[in-house]
Design goal:
With 175 residues, this protein is mostly helical. The protein has 6 helices and 3 strands, in the order H-E-H-E-H-E-H-H-H. Helix 5 packs antiparallel against helix 6. The longest helix has 46 residues. The mean pLDDT is 82.
C-alpha cells in the first residue's frame, strides 16, 4: 500500500543500473534527435528495462530508432521484452503504455507476494533450526551425551549407534 514513486534519471550509466536494482519496474525511454542510438542501447540498458519506450514517435527518426531498439533489445527475449512508441503530441501509444504498465504492476505484485511467502517460509525454518540447534548444543553439556561419548571413545559403542540413540532422545524431547 504505498503510493508509487517515479525516479527519473538522465544518461546511460551506472546510476541507471543501480536504480533498476531497487525499482519495481524500470522504463527505459529513448528519444529521437537526442543522440539515442544503438551505442546508447548497448550501454548496459538492455538488461534493466521492463518496458523500452521510444517517446516523441511523431518526430523524424523515431521509426528508425524504434526498429533499432526492437531489433537489438527485442531479439534477446521477444516474449519478455516490451518495446513501445508514444507521442504526447498525437496521443499515440499512451493508452497502450498505460495498459502495459498496469499489467506489469499486477505481475510484479504477484511475484513480490510469492517472494514474500518464500522469505517467510525460509525465516520460519531458520528460526526452528536455530531453536533445535540450541537444544542440541545445550544437550552436549548434559550427562546423557557425555555417557554416549565415553562409550564411543572407549570403543564399547560405534558412533552411528550412539548418534541414533541420542537422536531418539532428542525426538522424544521435541514431541
Amino acid at each position: 500500500g504505498f503510493d508509487p514513486i517515479i525516479i527519473e534519471s538522465i544518461g546511460a550509466g551506472q546510476t541507471e543500473i543501480e536504480i533498476s536494482n531497487i525499482a519495481d519496474i524500470t522504463v527505459v525511454v529513448f528519444n529521437p534527435h537526442t543522440g539515442d542510438s544503438i551505442q546508447t542501447i548497448k550501454a548496459g540498458l538492455t538488461e534493466i528495462g521492463d518496458i523500452y519506450l521510444v517517446n516523441k514517435s511523431d518526430l523524424d527518426g523515431a521509426s528508425q530508432l524504434y526498429d533499432a531498439v526492437q531489433d537489438y533489445i527485442g531479439s534477446a527475449s521477444p516474449d519478455k521484452i516490451t518495446v513501445l512508441k508514444t507521442s504526447t503530441k498525437t496521443n499515440d501509444g499512451i493508452l497502450k503504455f498505460a495498459k502495459k504498465l498496469k499489467e506489469l504492476i499486477k505481475e510484479k505484485q504477484k511475484i513480490k507476494k510469492d517472494k514474500e511467502k518464500q522469505r517467510l517460509e525460509f525465516e520460519l525454518k531458520d528460526i526452528i533450526l536455530n531453536n533445535i540447534k540450541e537444544k542440541i548444543d545445550s544437550m552436549f553439556d548434559n550427562q546423557i551425551y557425555c555417557k554416549y561419548l565415553k562409550l564411543v571413545q572407549s570403543k564399547k559403542m560405534n558412533p552411528i549407534e550412539a548418534a541414533e540413540k541420542i537422536s531418539k532422545l532428542i525426538n522424544k524431547g521435541l514431541k
